[in-house]
TrEMBL record:
Cell compartment(s), UniProt: Membrane
Main location: membrane
Alphabetized PANTHER family for the sequence: TRANSMEMBRANE PROTEIN 256
Family affiliation: Belongs to the UPF0382 family.
One Pfam assignment: DUF423
Keywords, ordered alphabetically: Membrane, Transmembrane, Transmembrane helix
Membrane topology: Multi-pass membrane protein
Spans traversing the lipid bilayer: 44-62, 67-88, 100-120
Species: Stutzerimonas decontaminans
Protein name per the record: DUF423 domain-containing protein
Length: 124
C-alpha cells in the first residue's frame, strides 16, 4: 500500500495544482465568486490531504500498521468525495451533489483520528 499511497499523493498533488490553476485562469469568468470560492476550497483540501497522504506513506515505511492503512484509505476517500463533489457541484450547478461533501469531510476527520491513534501507539 505504501507505493500506492505515494503515487496517489503525487497524483492528487499534481491534479490539485492543475485544478487550482484552471480555476484561477479558466473558471474566473465562468463561475460566480461564490462558486469559485467553493472550487478553491476543494483544491485546498485536496492539496493538504495529498501532502498528508504522502506523510502517512513515509510513516508507514517506519511503523507499518493497519491504522495507517486505514488513514490512507480515508484520506483518499475524503479527497474523492469532498473535493470531487465540490468540483462537480460548481461545474454542473447540481446542488444535490453537496450532499456528498459531508461524507468526504467525515472521511477526513476519521482519517485524522486514526492517525492520532496510530501516533499514540508508536513506541519510541
Amino acid at each position: 500500500m505504501i507505493r500506492a499511497y505515494i503515487v496517489l499523493a503525487a497524483l492528487f498533488g499534481f491534479t490539485g495544482v492543475a485544478l487550482g490553476a484552471f480555476a484561477s485562469h479558466g473558471l474566473r469568468s465562468q463561475l460566480s465568486p461564490a462558486y469559485l470560492a467553493v472550487f478553491q476550497t476543494g483544491v485546498q483540501y485536496q492539496l493538504i490531504h495529498a501532502l498528508a497522504l504522502f506523510g502517512v506513506a513515509l510513516l508507514a515505511l517506519l511503523h507499518p500498521s493497519r491504522l495507517l492503512t486505514a488513514v490512507g484509505v480515508l484520506f483518499t476517500a475524503g479527497i474523492l468525495l469532498f473535493s470531487g463533489s465540490l468540483y462537480l457541484l460548481t461545474l454542473s450547478g447540481i446542488g444535490k451533489l453537496g450532499m456528498i461533501t459531508p461524507i468526504g469531510g467525515t472521511a477526513f476527520l476519521a482519517g485524522w483520528l486514526c492517525l492520532v491513534i496510530a501516533g499514540w501507539r508508536i513506541r519510541g
